[in-house]
Amino acid sequence: MSTSASTAVGAKGFAKTLRKDKWWLYPGMVLFGLTAFLVYGFWSAWQADFYWYSAGQEGFGGYLAPFYSPLLFIKEGVAGAAPMEHSLFGAWPDWWPSWIPPSPSLLILAIPGIFRFTCYYYRKAYYRAFTGTPPACAVGALPRKGKSGYKGETGLMLVQNLHRYAMYFAMFYILVFFYDAYLSFFRGGEFGLGVGSILLLGNPIFLAAYSFGCHSIRHLLSGSRDCYSCGARGNIAHKNGKIVGWLNQRHELFAWLSLIWIMIADFYVRMVSMGYITDLNTWG
Asked: Of the four listed, 33, 170, 178, 245, which is most buried by Cβ atoms within 10 Å?
């Protein structure tokens, strides 16, 4: 569609378009998917219990719900809580407000939340789905104040630039989740395999595929260069950038797979811990 035609469509109002396809389907699915994840994430974090399962067996091993990892502090006496030896800093602090549940999840969700919120793919997804800027290509956007309307990273969304720094913390979470997966293959110190083990192992794998396909990672591996053809090192930078090119081309796929998988894994551990689901495993 030409620029003049696009301008004319935008001038007609929100969601006005000459397109005949179901353009609304994708932003609608994004709106539903991200809303469901946010609702579940807040609900899970607010529970503060039933985030650990080891079938009552003492010793090394068990399932830890991903939304609660890593465990900075642990509140003793909470149903379905992990043993105190899994806490990085010991017992629950006294300074915690009494009106907020003593949930380890509330202490750590901000970092992965910022990483996803500032992700280049998710920006496009929720800009379209939640703010209609525009909801799809060649579709009328919501009216904005000012000449350009869209402010992007120069206005209220300046926080988006934190993505390149949140990326380093995301690498740490991958290591933590791989350790949680390692724990899930043991029960009372005995090696085995359960449905929870598969779910918890898939979590860091999909997270790594999503994280290493990040545009910031590609930029970092290419020597932080914006132009491959500028200078003698351009070819080297281009080759380094291609290392993560396969993942970067599938960034959207792994963004959703990792998002859905971690929610399923977290919900599964919670249901097993509460006794609503019987975990199929080799420990009997």
From this structure: 170
